[in-house]
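hey so i finally got around to running both of the ones u sent me last week. sorry it took forever, my laptop kept dying halfway thru and i had to restart like 3 times lol. anyway pasting them below in the order u listed, first the sequence line then the structure token line for each. didnt double check formatting much so if smth looks off just lmk and ill redo it

first one:
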Amino acid sequence: MLRPIAILLAVCGAGSASALSCVRPDVVSSFERADQRNEGFVLALGSLERIGPNVMDGPETGDPNRRVGYGFPARFDGRLATSDGFLAERAFDVTVEVSCVSAWCGGDSTSDYGLYFLRSDGTGAYALESDPCGGFFFDTPEEHQLMEVIGLMP
């Protein structure tokens, strides 16, 4: 646990001279990451569209190396995963939470067709976490990725 914190502090303190290094996410590691969390997650396949104002870059800090996170409302329309596939048709609001590390921020993660790992609070509220290294959003997923993630469902 201390090693990831030390790495994050080193990246944050290094300034613009360093580059953010991320391991390319895949659906299996993303599933395992979500499964290890205390919060619940749902797997969703479909479209995510911004429904609020355009705040793409978040608040201005005056320093491009100290960007801050932001959030915006979006609407999901598609299907949720079951152990038999993406069969449960759903449409609901999602809060997209974009986080930043130094100069790097996550993307807005909106798409006409994407695979989303959505955090659920159990009361019908959903959030998509978008950090600079990604992992909870896969744009235009391929069939083998969908089959892999369904194979992991309990």
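and the second one:
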Amino acid sequence: MLMLFLVCLAHAEEAYQATAKIWETMDRKNWDAAIAQANRVIRVWGPQARRTNNQLKGYAPAKDAKKYGNLNAAGVSLLLKGDALSKKGDKVAAKVTYQLLLDQYTYAQVWDPKGWYWKPAEEARKKLVLLQKETAPNLKVAKPNFSAAQLKLPGKKGICFSMRTAGEEGSAQENLPRLKKVNPYWSYSWSWDQVAGQPSQVEFVPMAWGAWSSGGLRKGLQDKVVPHIKAGKVKRFLGFNEPDKKEQSNMPYKAALKYWPILESLNVPLCSPGCANPEGLNDGTVQGVNSSWMVDFMREADRLGYRVDYVGVHWYGGTDAADFKAKMRRVYEKYGRRPLMITEFAPADWQAKIHSQNRMKAPAVLDFMKEVLPWMEKQDWIAGYAWFSFEPHEPHGHTSSLFDKSGNLSALGRFYRSVSTDSPNGDQSIDLP
């Protein structure tokens, strides 16, 4: 192995020496010794390194990086352990190791004597993507049952608002005016219930939020959905909502498969469950959900010949548009190039407890939206998207709200409204006050 002479930024010489031994064993291609030595580093210095990482809000400036020696040693040790496991052929264990580095030692840094810094977590993220491609199931996708025209929505831009009964938070009375303000082509409400006042030009797409009995699912669909399909009002249907998340529909993938033929019997284009983790890879955009639920579901659905016409995607990441675009492309390629319905997305900082802690600053969120919406409008493999508008009072997502505290459109909301099929770039002149 061609080894760059890298010096781990370590305040404690012993931690540095222990990490240096991993480099030496990697250079000799002694993978087992490298793994054992990395385990020792994590066992001895890992607890303090995790505490340090949790105290940081981002990467330390170069001038301060040397203060975090134990964290830097732990980060590079895990990266090398993952590399050693991968070289041994244990791809699953390598993915787990890289993910551990991403989750617990995110802000480790390493210095090269030439004067540049690199970040083990960023390297681990790249390696995870490559491993994901190598280990992805070879899906045999059934021939589509619907034409491209049938799969096409009236327009790509949608919106998601709850439409609960009057008096409840998130009621139709509260949210229908907000829906109209953003001028979407389609909408959904995490339910299959039609509500009075839905604009006729906005297609409502019903959803089965979850399912717990075949009889109950069939009856609900027969009462609430089938009449509207027959009337030509309902043209497509969304599968279960975040079944991989305990706080949401929380369904085992085998249970979802059990109920899937009932949804297929509607005979309209059908979107996969919208998972919190659509890749089976925790890249920091998945609300902390570590799960292969979607991978398992899609693999088995294709093996059984079940029909999945769109792939539903949820995304709550940062403001790097390139990362968002790359992830959408990976999901599209991963599941047989089915069109995507990005049914929830917005930058969010789930660690923020008060507004000032939110690292997703309003100017960056607006810049993100100005780049990704026009891009999605131009991708023929993205069928539709729906921004998740957090509320202005929510610390973790207030900068992604389409509305201000008075209920008027924010700058973000005004730009979202300005995007249309005829004007895919929207009004790029819109800016923050």
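quick thing i noticed on the 2nd:
The first strand starts at residue 7 and ends at 8.
anyway thats it, ttyl
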